[in-house]
Write a structure and sequence with these properties.
2 domains; two-stranded antiparallel sheet; 9% strand; alpha+beta
């Protein structure tokens, strides 16, 4: 059955509550790609397209034709333009962006409690923590070790192209879902990933994939998730597993369990806990966060370039006591502000605003001066007219007086 072309739907979301141009590229998720003013990514078996204006988040979902995908054998040769539906995408996006949380209130709270946040936040509004797939977050943050956002994004893209299920193409661009643990667990994968430029991270990826697909029970990773933050579309599954295991996970439990995986240190564990498992109090500590702690919160410098777990926990505990249960969210705002690309953009935006303000003031001043000049001219004309009238009246009076004198004579 043919399906109608995807149409843009919209959610009422202000830039104060969500700014996708910042949120989708500040080091949380590494698979969103921007095409002109439109962001695209494969999520939960569909390709999601997003764009935004001051009042709305616009979205559309494109689903693959299963038979066509099967026939393509993953070669990326079919177009999805005519195979689209929009069923539960709104719910997925509300969950993915945590839209149930009032970000403005959180910013207000952090600003009241922290003068540094109050100073930095106005230029970096609308940054939200994403509710991502835990497995994807785990592998992508293993790739983040001694890496930058651009290279991590390239690695995530390579994983999808070579090992992820093919979904199709939009405007000539191929999209694949993220590969499963089983797809990355084969011994041959490590050699191939090294050839693709993953370096020592290839070993960690394969070992962790093997652990999750072979050594851990099904759903083990999701059992570490915050019960109040189920993954989009899987709330029933998470509740069922929690009831079956008769245990309530905590942030500390999730953090410690993640540390048992290959390639996972305290920072990676907290990234996964925060962005993949919904633990808002997790505060990942890397070089940027340490710079912030030393520069703005009076932590003493250390000679070592690496951080022990004790230092990591000390910094995290300090921010948790300062910002509260969503400390990881507040940290992401200051983390973004500390990235050179974003800080330069903020300065440029500030300069543009100052320029616009100055131009506006000049226009206003010019208009005011023009009005003043017109008023002066009008006033002078009126004064001149009055003087002329007075002169005329004086002349008439003089002439009348002269005539009366003549008559009397």
């Amino acid at each position: 059955m043919s399906r109608s072309a995807a149409k843009w739907q919209k959610l009422p979301v202000s830039l104060k509550e969500l700014r996708i141009d910042t949120t989708l590229r500040c080091g949380q998720s590494f698979r969103w790609r921007k095409f002109d003013d439109e962001w695209r990514c494969s999520l939960h078996g569909r390709i999601v397209s997003l764009k935004q204006d001051a009042d709305f988040l616009y979205y559309k979902a494109t689903f693959p034709d299963k038979a066509a995908v099967s026939a393509s054998k993953g070669k990326g040769s079919i177009s999805l333009e005519n195979h689209v539906v929009d069923e539960d995408t709104e719910t997925l996006l509300r969950d993915y962006f945590h839209l149930q949380l009032d970000l403005g209130k959180l910013y207000d709270q952090w600003s009241r409690d922290d003068a540094n946040f109050r100073k930095k936040a106005p230029a970096f509004c609308g940054i939200r923590i994403l509710n991502q797939d835990a497995w994807e977050a785990l592998i992508c943050f293993i790739c983040s070790s001694n890496n930058n956002i651009s290279r991590i994004s390239q690695m995530a893209q390579k994983l999808c192209i070579h090992y992820g299920p093919f979904l199709g193409t939009i405007d000539g661009e191929a999209f694949h879902d993220f590969p499963s643990p089983a797809a990355l667990a084969a011994p041959s994968v490590e050699t191939h990933l090294r050839q693709l430029g993953f370096g020592y991270r290839a070993k960690y990826i394969v070992q962790t994939a093997h652990t999750l697909s072979m050594d851990r029970p099904e759903g083990w990773l999701e059992q570490l998730r915050n019960p109040s933050c189920p993954p989009p579309g899987q709330s029933k599954l998470v509740k069922a597993q929690a009831q079956k295991d008769d245990c309530t996970p905590s942030y500390k439990t999730a953090h410690e369990q993640l540390l048992l995986l290959s390639g996972v240190g305290p920072k990676v564990a907290d990234c996964v806990a925060l962005m993949g498992l919904g633990w808002g109090e997790a505060v990942p500590v890397d070089t940027h966060v340490w710079q912030i702690a030393v520069r703005d919160y009076k932590f003493k410098k250390i000679a070592s370039k690496t951080f022990s777990k004790a230092i990591h926990d000390m910094v995290g505990d300090h921010f948790r006591s300062l910002w509260g249960p969503y400390a990881g969210w507040a940290q992401s705002v200051l983390f973004t502000a500390n990235l050179k690309a974003f800080s330069e953009e903020a300065k440029a935006e500030g300069s543009r605003e100052e320029s616009v303000k100055a131009d506006t003031e000049m226009v206003i001043q010019s208009v005011e001066e023009e009005h003043v000049a017109k008023d002066i001219v009008t006033m002078r004309k009126r004064e001149s007219a009055v003087k002329v009238e007075e002169n005329i009246n004086s002349a008439i009076a003089l002439e009348t007086h002269t005539q009366i004198k003549r008559i009397r004579k």
